[in-house]
């Protein structure tokens, strides 16, 4: 299905990326035939008794794209726009992310088409428990491991792990990641995505011979990912000159004081009005003359329209899908390096993997151990991706697919799936 900007729907786009990787790597066509759709896809009806006693039935999904490298893993989103194709596509991206990071996982994803703002907390709890009952046969610590995503959170993960543990008759903390610390969550999980993004960006800057210390940085989005990325970039010696949230941005040529800005945001719950900076718009922020631009808010922010005016040398994607395919081509032709989301925001799934390892071994790590290992994983993945980029002369996003597809194909080959 073609969309307004000429790109394909996310499912068809993910398929095309696998087809390109299989052809470029000269792999057997069977690799594409297996990867072009999920191995297993379940659609479930999720009945919820409303607080007024009436019954509402929601549609939920769980997609298990490929488990050649290990159990499938991926988030679970509650959003009215969730569709079967979106969940399929997101599970395919998770296969790429996990394989690129060298995690012993395949790609999975789940979702429920629901507007959580219309439900009470008790109703959200019942929805979460009913969903787990509906998919319980196909999930489990050695089968498929969910995690939080859009509009789901540690509390929801706690209800879900509790429901699954009741069904099994035993505590099964390794079922799900992103749990509260007290029931087996991992230290460092909340900051993992922003932290991993900065590790990957520094590694890319090194590959390009760009000094991170003193580099200028603009960050769009000041939530979980953007605020941590901005803080850690400035701690690492970069000059963060601009940040923004949905209301607009702030600019200070000498660099923003991130500690004061975070304190201001905590007190005022917004960036607007921070006294030590000039206001700018989100559109202006994207086009600033900085070394590193970090989109960490929404999808489709860098498009064919504004890509020609992007001045950064590195676009480090914290958000999912902030650059459209057409903008990707324009940036590649201009020589801008796009650090793709599949690596840029993979710190979250990497620390989710650490959480699962801790649950399965029942031995818990310190935050320092988590953070050190995260850096190792992010840097190693960057090296593999950059090597593929240099070898095939393709953008980093395509290189990420090449690394991941080669790994999954090898696992499928040795397991005897391809003959
Ligand atoms: P968040 O809700 O904590 O923060 C989002 C930020 O973006 C907020 O500051 C919000 O004000 C801002 N924003 C919203 N609309 C905007 C607009 N139109 N222009 C500019 N800013 C706008 O979300 P998050 O967890 O930081 O996630 C951000 C992105 O990263 C999303 O694309 C998400 O899918 C992706 N991501 C997050 C994680 C994670 O672990 N949190 C993991 C992988 C990917």
From TrEMBL:
Residues 186-416 form the Glutamate/phenylalanine/leucine/valine/L-tryptophan dehydrogenase C-terminal domain. NAD(+) binds at residues 193, 224. Gene3D superfamilies: Leucine Dehydrogenase, chain A, domain 1, NAD(P)-binding Rossmann-like Domain. GO terms for molecular function: glutamate dehydrogenase (NAD+) activity; nucleotide binding. Substrate binds at residues 73, 97, 352. GO terms for biological process: L-glutamate catabolic process. InterPro entries: Aminoacid_DH-like_N_sf, Glu/Leu/Phe/Val/Trp_DH, Glu/Leu/Phe/Val/Trp_DH_C, Glu/Leu/Phe/Val/Trp_DH_dimer, Glu_DH, NAD(P)-bd_dom_sf, NAD_bind_Glu_DH. Keywords: NAD, Nucleotide-binding, Oxidoreductase. It holds the Pfam family ELFV_dehydrog_N. The record marks 149 as: Important for catalysis. It comes from the Bacteria. The active site is at 109 (proton donor). SMART domains: ELFV_dehydrog. Transmembrane segments: none annotated. Belongs to the Glu/Leu/Phe/Val dehydrogenases family. This is Glutamate dehydrogenase. It comes from Candidatus Hydrogenisulfobacillus filiaventi.
